[in-house]
What does this fold into?
Amino acid sequence: MGEASLMEDYFVDNPTYDVIISRRRFRMRRPLFHCIVDAVTANDIYFQRRPDTTGRQSLSPVQKCTGSMRVLAYGTSVDAIDEYLRMSGSTTRESLINFVNGVISCFGDDYLRNPTKDDLARLLYVRDQREFPGRAPKVTYVVNGCENDRAYYLTDGIYPTWAAFVKSITSLQIQKHKLFVEH
It folds into this structure.
């Protein structure tokens, strides 16, 4: 039932949702989605359709990849998609782990590498063409008597520990912490 709904909504000749909605929900165009699904399925038996331990046919590669991509694209929990795709949270988690490993295995050499000088030049050119600033504004400020000239960004706990990222204090226990978060 989950696969039938998914296919009818996005992947048949006349789907329920058009190309624009599909791209917004999957965060990519359909041909790219199919390219990823095909590559991951061809390289990992986990995504290939076969009978499960009870003898029933396993979930389709499209279901498993869609569940994984939705968790990644929306940052949702694995339980958030179970009703639509008819996948349990544990299956979605297992699919996600296999999906990430599959994408790294299939596409890592081309897309998950350090940029070359040519890559960097191309990216900077595109940035300039789109008038994307790409740099932090120049600022000067004083903290505890020390003058600083580097910008910082207030963030939450998901960002790495870098000097430019100042994380808010989550458990406010003293007045000093409350004042910091307030400002």
